[in-house]
Amino acid sequence: MKSIIQFFEESVEKFNSNVYLWEKTQDKYEGTTYGETRKQVYEFAAGLIVLGVKKGDRISLLSEGRNTWVIGELG
């Protein structure tokens, strides 16, 4: 069975330049592509590693329903 991360990585390979997430900023919506999202996910994950978070550790996310929530969950 594939994990959410595996599905995400496969989708990035297929749809790298397609918009994956939309978010309203000020008075308009801005899109973030699959590739841009993966970059942000990797940066978030790297930050967790620097902080000493290891596989199996429990952390919590506190965020409004927005793109950063998705990035944090995938990271």
What global shape is seen?
A: globular
Q: Radius of gyration from the CA trace? A: 13 Å
Portion of residues in helices?
Answer: 40-55%
Strand order of the largest sheet: 1-2
Mean pLDDT rating? 95
Distance between the termini: 20 Å
Helix and strand sequence: HEEHH
Classify the oligomer. Answer: single chain
Share of residues in strands: 15-25%
Which structural category fits the helices and strands? alpha+beta
Jot down its keywords.
75 residues; alpha+beta; two-stranded antiparallel sheet; 3 helices
Describe the structure.
- The protein is α+β, with helices and mostly antiparallel strands.
- It has one domain.
- The chain is 49% helix and 17% strand.
- It is built from 3 helices and 2 strands; from the N terminus they run αββαα.
Short structural description:
With 75 residues, this protein is an alpha+beta fold. It is built from three helices and two strands, in the order H-E-E-H-H. The model has no long low-confidence stretch (mean pLDDT 95).
Helices and strands in order:
Blueprint: H1 4-15, E1 19-25, E2 28-33, H2 34-50, H3 67-74
Antiparallel strand pairs: 1-2
